[in-house]
Write a structure and sequence with these properties.
Blueprint: E1 4-8, H1 13-23, E2 27-31, H2 44-53, E3 59-62, H3 77-98, E4 107-111, H4 124-142, E5 149-154, H5 159-164, H6 175-187, E6 194-196
Parallel strand pairs: 1-2, 1-3, 3-4, 4-5, 5-6
Helix pairs in contact: 1-6, 2-3, 3-4
The structure holds NADP nicotinamide-adenine-dinucleotide phosphate.
Length: about 200
């Protein structure tokens, strides 16, 4: 199956691995705030411009979105607002605006994260964002028109990220393995699901 897929966050730890995994069988357009055209999911105008520039995409995969990891006592209202605006509303807008733009029978995949279901100290803002996003995906899929499928991948800690942060990376999932989960969701038939790694 050769399909035309946009990957947002294509230069990131997860996004890069997704692009590599897809490029074997599909046409992939990699985007981020640093690409041309620039896509900043925090800014709905750039999302609209992106869908306008690439009409009839078969799939959109998002592995982008920022959130603040900090102890609850140190979390400022602006940290929570930034996390909501970026990772949650950014991906909600990507889905919302994609409903009128992605090709019939197409697929939109967003990224939440393990903190929705397995909280840890410092992760409360991201638990909020990930949980909200997963609930939105389950609901939005019910109303998706034209056979569009909407799903989330909820990654556990990625090995490369743990290594970069100086953590014990032995329980981490290699980005290459995680990317296969995105490909499985893309090439599968499910909708309204949240797929853990
Ligand atoms: N790594 C993990 O262990 C892990 C675990 C669970 C969940 N996640 C989630 O997975 C997602 C990706 O994580 P990652 O570790 O791959 O991140 P990363 O290595 O920091 O890469 C982020 C990617 O997204 C782009 N990006 C950042 N902000 C953006 C924005 N506002 N609009 C468009 N593109 C943006 C970046 O490029 P530019 O800077 O050029 O825009 C980059 O390509 C995040 O939502 C993260 O919370 C990660």
């Amino acid at each position: 199956v050769l399909v035309r897929i946009a990957v947002i966050g294509a230069t990131g730890t997860i996004g890069k691995a997704i692009v590599e995994a897809l490029a074997e069988r599909h046409e992939v357009i990699g985007l981020s705030r640093g690409s041309d055209p620039r896509v900043d999911i925090d800014d709905p105008a750039t999302i609209e411009a992106f869908y306008g520039a690439f009409p009839g995409l078969d799939a959109v995969i998002c592995a982008a979105g920022n959130g603040v990891f900090a102890p609850l006592a140190d979390l400022r209202p602006e940290d929570i607002e930034m996390s909501l605006r970026s990772k949650l509303l950014g991906q909600v807008n990507l889905i919302r605006l994609g409903l009128g733009a992605v090709a019939e029978g197409g697929s939109i995949i967003v990224t939440s994260g393990v903190l929705s279901t397995h909280p840890m100290p410092g992760g409360s803002a991201l638990s909020l964002v990930n949980g909200g996003l997963e609930a939105f995906v389950r609901a939005a899929a019910l109303e998706a028109p034209r056979g569009l499928r909407i799903n989330a991948v909820s990654p556990g800690w990625v090995k490369e990220t743990m290594e970069r942060l100086g953590m014990d990376s032995s329980p981490g999932i290699p980005a290459r393995e995680l990317a296969k989960i995105y490909v499985g969701v893309l090439e599968g038939t499910q909708t309204g699901t949240v797929v853990p790694s």
